[in-house]
């Protein structure tokens, strides 16, 4: 049983009829609903809640954080971003979805601009599994086909993924590294591309399977606690040239 | 011929007699001197110069930036760090030395705390080459032996290096990933551990060879210019379900 | 519950009193004993059994294969090595221990010579965890200390590990990448260095913990089945220059 | 100035009129011709020459070997494959083209089946540069467009590339990791997908640029010579529990 927090900006849902019709209770609710099928303890939080719903207490008890944002990355408080980053370094899993590539938290963990090409043209996306041995690929076939999605295209300015799990084909001629894992500190991060707010992508069984697998892959474990700072020697250090033995 | 800028905090040299005796003209001058043997165009800059010696003009013409800092990482202006980071993403090479692991620029590019263990005890360091096929290893033997250095020990909180070139053995019992390469955007980064300010490390022929090799490895080239943002399709996108052809 | 097969050459145990006194029932029994504590279904096999105990039936039902060999790598039948390799590509996990670095199966999967330095001198080994977030590091501390082991030293001629989990420090001055993961096809491979036959290394609680973790990490899952060969197009291919539409 | 050997199976050219019309002097001559523009010392060799044109003397003086094969991988002598592999581990560069993915040498260095999907249907290939900072991408634009090529599609059973430089988009709906680097021993390997024998692919300026860049990237240098085997300690090893000092 994993404690999952699904964080969503939740601004599109307020102002865009099309989005509201696809996700009447918000993208966060749609994602939380299918994650609950896995017997996880799932909570949600949105940008406009106090502290963005990411208080110290909430973050401390979160095992895996799922993040969707798009219009208002800049409104996420820097202090909150710093706390989320620290939790990832301490072992909390992080799953970044779609336009979350431009979130402050993802850019802070990547160190790059995370820029890319994009196009909204109702085009087909085919997500090929290029690493069929990866746990995140469990229960999937050779590819996932999405009838209509927003195109994201290379060059995607990210560090080379620690593991490249999926690469997408787009009808308009582009490709994109759409399933990428990273390790930062003790935390595991998975970036997963699909999820434009006007398409029912998060109702797609395969997309749901990927996110379920990712939550399971990213959960923390009982891991070593590194010790930093000034350290006493574990071995005897010999006499140095000036004749002083330490 | 490469335009190299050697940046040094240059505070130790002002206040510490021991450091002044080892590096009378500053660590930056010592490094610049041996880099000039390679017919590079070498400049230096220090923390206390206006804009830390890192104006837009200087950064624009710099091919590779070498960075040494220790006591005053926090005094480097955030705006300057952001400009240096952007230059790296655009292709400028960056070589981070020793205590520069805690510099704002290195931490920003890594996304981790970059923390580690340390000890000042005049102990021997043996830097093993674990990737003898790497260009940065050119002209070296199996290892580099430093009579006395400051110990840095694992766990070193960095992302897994894109390439691990060197691993150090310390007399007191620790190991450390001491030669690590990273790619960020179009830039190449090399972290190289040795260089405690009270030891004549930068006069060591093998240490000099590594830094010379790294400058050559990190230099930019005539590379593709990525295009980001809204992109027209390169292929015809078929009729969508709503009957609209794009 | 995982089906584990522990394969051991079992020649030292026949001819060397010292080894017999440390592992009276063979290294394979010692390893199988602690793996059974995890409720796995554990079998053993040795070189001198018919087909080396690696018949098609046995291999088909094996989820994770643990391999220890030293004196007689050359006596393992090439046909058997090929079958083991195919099982790994199809998803069977493989844990290669100590002198198994020179086994035919490990060299076949690596593509390199797997050569290294060595020394039998009763020296201390300290295995540092350099990736404390890795599942194989679960339940461990900062390092594992082995009072006496055989030294293995860099340069270790392996491909750069997909993940470097541990690096060893040796009393005599060397370092070694002692915990390395690889992916080949759908299979997961973990190379773990310690285990010289005259030392009670496989009774050490931390060494046992690593191997238990590795078995859990390497087990196969319900993963996509790749399809190879001549493939029909998934999209309509336009008229080519010669006017032929495919 | 680099010593390059272009090895081609040269069987298609003997039996297929279409191939003969595209490459009248053989694929090897076409590739050697453009490499000579770079002032390299370029030789060629084919399958049916004595020792496949790969005698010890020839291999010793070769800095970079370029390999194209398709119909007759099995006819390359195992002993020759072993010698080529050893040269790569010792530092010779290797560039494997197109159907060379199934060559004995590439499979031996990879450790996987190297299987993939394929289709001959005169379809468009667009090779996207996903790592614009890589030296192999020098002088290129965002992508290379090939009017007609043979499709290769994922899943491509290779180890995760050390560096993924290019990903291809195919008209029929597939993607493929088409520009991949690997390090084996001291050698550098580049796999580059395009080059079906009935298309004029090796006359394409961008394809030529990639191969020129790859030769430059893969060339050996004056690198450390690893030492293997029984090694004397570099440090004094203390008294062991039995009281013997080594």
UniProtKB/TrEMBL annotation, chains A, B, C, D:
SUPFAM superfamilies with a match to the protein in the record: Class I glutamine amidotransferase-like
Protein name listed in UniProt: Trehalose utilization protein
Organism whose genome encodes this protein: Cytobacillus firmus
Domain ThuA-like: 3-218
InterPro entries: Class_I_gatase-like (IPR029062), ThuA-like (IPR029010), Trehalose_catabolism_ThuA_prok (IPR009381)
Top-level taxon: Bacteria
Classification via Pfam families: ThuA
